[in-house]
């Protein structure tokens, strides 16, 4: 005969409600008590039914994540990691809705109010419009944004954003300070309405350059597997090769460095390159970049989300995380002839 929740409570010398909370609301139980309960539950081969816990609490124990980027990419994977490490510990599952086209976007927001199958919605890297915000709010659950909307433009319950404006301006000032005036900015043609954060970087970088009397060359490439080759072709096909290249993300900057090297251009001797993210291999490749920590940002967002679900007061609901310039060997002062 299998053990039940009362058996676990008796052996752990705690109440049945404490056993239940150890599984479904671990943040309400001390670490020592929870560890003891879980160890005894494992000994007795006991597991609590999540559906039963959800029915009892009136919650779905599910968080919906609306994300615009490919899940396999560094930023998306880091966001999922940061959210999951908090939500999983608290007994919540993460349901991921990847939106990659305008049609999918329309269908998601049309169906969302009728689903109501999540205790909160986390929106990542979306420039959500007024009608979509209204549809989100109609679910009656907390809405939290990550790199999504700024406080003066949204009706979300909370947001946390990397300071893309500051980061992009740091990129421009760094290159200009090194004496570069022939600068290219590389971005993809992804539907910008689905990728709010990188669009902000683009506008801020261009604006900062123009403040110094510089008009950067814009290199726009398709968001597909051949994008780096397309970017190199456009660079080499221009009348004058830029002395510095700023990329919307490290995922472009790092392979671009290697592709240009194969074409005879050394970094930073012939061309300085700067990225944005400080992602995988940025340190190993010596890439100068703008650092952000999506795991930490997502973990913070998750803790805010749980507090909102539990009707707890959240201090500083709209947070901006400062960007940081990390200077490595891929950028250098322009050599004057």
TrEMBL record:
Presence of the UniProt keyword Membrane in the record: no
Transcription regulation is among the record's keywords: yes
Keyword list, A-Z: DNA-binding, Transcription, Transcription regulation
One Pfam family, short name: Peripla_BP_3
Top-level taxon of the source organism: Bacteria
HTH lacI-type domain segment(s): 3-57
GO molecular function, one term: transcription cis-regulatory region binding
Name of the featured protein: LacI family transcriptional regulator
Source taxonomy: Bacteria, Bacillati, Actinomycetota, Actinomycetes, Bifidobacteriales
């Amino acid at each position: 005969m299998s053990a039940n929740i009362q058996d676990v409570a008796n052996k752990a010398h705690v109440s049945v409600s404490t056993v239940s909370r150890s599984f479904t609301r671990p943040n309400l139980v001390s670490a020592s008590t929870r560890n003891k309960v879980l160890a005894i539950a494992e000994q007795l081969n006991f597991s609590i039914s999540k559906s039963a816990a959800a029915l009892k609490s009136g919650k779905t124990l599910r968080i919906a994540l609306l994300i615009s980027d490919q899940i396999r990419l560094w930023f998306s994977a880091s966001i999922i990691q940061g959210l999951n490490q908090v939500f999983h510990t608290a007994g919540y599952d993460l349901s991921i809705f990847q939106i990659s086209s305008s049609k999918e976007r329309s269908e998601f927001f049309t169906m969302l109010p009728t689903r109501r199958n999540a205790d909160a919605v986390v929106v990542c890297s979306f420039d959500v419009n007024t009608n979509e915000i209204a549809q989100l709010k109609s679910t009656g659950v907390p809405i939290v944004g990550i790199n999504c909307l700024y406080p003066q433009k949204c009706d979300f319950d909370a947001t946390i954003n990397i300071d893309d404006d500051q980061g992009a301006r740091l990129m421009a000032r760094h290159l200009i300070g090194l004496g570069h005036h022939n600068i290219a900015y590389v971005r993809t043609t992804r539907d910008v309405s689905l990728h709010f954060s990188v669009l902000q970087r683009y506008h801020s970088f261009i604006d900062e350059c123009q403040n110094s009397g510089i008009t950067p060359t814009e290199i726009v490439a398709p968001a597909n597997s051949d994008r780096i080759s397309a970017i190199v072709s456009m660079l080499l096909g221009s009348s004058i090769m830029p002395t510095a290249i700023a990329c919307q993300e490290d995922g472009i900057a790092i392979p671009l460095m290697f592709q240009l090297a194969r074409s005879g251009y050394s970094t930073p001797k012939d061309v300085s390159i700067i990225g944005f993210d400080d992602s995988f291999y940025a340190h190993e490749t010596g890439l100068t970049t703008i650092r952000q920590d999506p795991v930490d940002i997502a973990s913070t967002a998750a803790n805010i989300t749980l507090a909102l679900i539990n009707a707890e007061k959240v201090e500083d609901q709209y947070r901006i995380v400062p960007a940081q310039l990390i200077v490595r060997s891929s950028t250098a002062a322009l050599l004057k002839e």
